[in-house]
Amino acid sequence: MSVGAQQGSAGFEPTRARGLAERIGASALGLRLRRDLSAAEARMARSARAQGWAHRYARFLRVTDALVALAAGTLGLLVMNPPPGPAAALVAFILVWPFALGLSGSRDTSVLGIGVDEYRRVISATMQLFALVAVVVVLTDGVLSARLWALVLGTGSAGLLATRSLSRRWLHRQRQSGMYLTPAVVVGEPEDVRYVVRRISAGEGAPYNVLGAILPGGRRGQSLTVDGVRLPVLSSTDDVVRTVATKKAGAVIVAGPVPGGNQYVRELGWNLEEHDAELVLASSLTNVAGPRIHFRPVPGLPLMEVDLPRYSGTKHVVKRCADLVLATAAVIVLAPVLAVLALIVRLDSPGPVLFRQERIGKDGTPFTMFKFRSMATDAEARLAALTEANEGAGVLFKMKDDPRVTRCGAWMRRYSLDELPQFLNVLRGEMSLVGPRPPLAREVGGYERYTHRRMLIKPGITGLWQISGRSDLEWDDAVRLDLYYVENWSLTGDLMILWRTLRAVVSPTGAY
């Protein structure tokens, strides 16, 4: 019995030990799970606080989208008084419209405040929803009133774009005052960091507040000079994660190649997850934009494919049709203004009303560009005497107080009214509404090799150069903007530029 008891005791002890171990293990596992869950909740809370403005802004856009849809639908119902079938379809469209805008990603943080993707997604969601409603109506033997839907879609789309534009202007003002920005650090070699910081500083609506630089071999206390401003060096590339935690950065921007290559970047992304900091990779393709970039889903190897720029084809035919329609409408609507301006030029100083000047167009072809005369008739002859007073950038000649400018020419140039006759050049096919600045022959003679790419498409009445500072731009910046437009233009981008041109005309900068 003692033996049996001993055997039973011996058999019992391992079982009890295993049970105890299992309970202890389960307790430890539960503790780890609770600790991990608490850490995850803490990270989520920090993320929610950091991104609180984005959630509030998106909520505001949801409200304005719903109000615009309701207003457009109500207008359609009141003006057209449709029968029950189309009225029911319209009510369904109004109710679903705001949700479709959300599903399209038009309120995503990544597209808010910068670029044209937000507007493109608004229009795309609207058109896709309308197409779906139209199919349902036709399949159910309903009657689709063209005038009703034209009214609702026209007013609704215009209202959505207007409210988004106003909201974006408000967001830009907040960011210019230091609000609604993501604190970021920039990692990379000094020259790469300088380039990224310059672009962030120059970009309208850029969402980052750069706290400092992280350089290979960098140490705290050092600084990096960017356009005369001392940017603090926060640490070396070996200490990014601790620096992010210390500075409470919300983003790490990798500005170029870093020691450790792809493995370093991959592990950095994993480590940043614990601090709710996003990893942003700055592309070395500095002159390539969204319409030309496509991602190829190769397992284990994310590939970014860049389309070749197209300088002819269907898109350019559509662009030409849009130029003809809009230029014709502009000439008809502005005819009284053109007549008054012509009379003012005639009475202000002796000489012709129109100033004709040879410019270089697409493929280096010269053409005669029209403008209202804003200078004295001997302006070209007096140019050589003013060369030393040139304030222009690069090969451009500009003077803020040019003595050759007439009295009416000063205010016409300020508000770009002297450019209005160029609608005739658009109708003649020599220019486009939007494009690179049309250069003089002497300017083309001073171009560097790649600057000639500006002439691969038609020059424009307006362009990125006009809405980005005009004569205040450095020559390199003006060339960069023109080359960027030449290779990446889109119809949506053209509409954005035309809209911003109206704002630039009302509040001119760099116009003289």
What does this structure look like?
This protein has 512 residues and is of the alpha/beta class. It has 3 domains: 52-176, no CATH class; 182-284, 3-Layer(aba) Sandwich (Rossmann fold), CATH 3.40.50.720; 314-506, no CATH class. It is 53% helix and 13% strand. The protein is built from 15 helices and 12 strands. It has a 6-stranded mixed beta sheet with strand order 3-4-2-1-5-6. Helix 12 links the parallel strand 11 and strand 12 (460-462). The longest helix has 49 residues, at 2-50. The radius of gyration is 31 Å and the shape is globular. Keywords: Membrane, Transferase, Transmembrane, Transmembrane helix. It is a multi-pass membrane protein. Residues 319-506 form the Bacterial sugar transferase domain. The chain crosses the membrane at residues 60-79, 85-101, 122-140, 146-166, 324-345. It comes from Sinomonas atrocyanea.
Q: Which properties best describe this structure?
A:
six-stranded mixed β-sheet; alpha/beta; 53% helix; membrane; two-stranded antiparallel ribbon; single chain; transmembrane helix; 3 domains; 15 helices; 512 residues; Rossmann fold; disordered N terminus
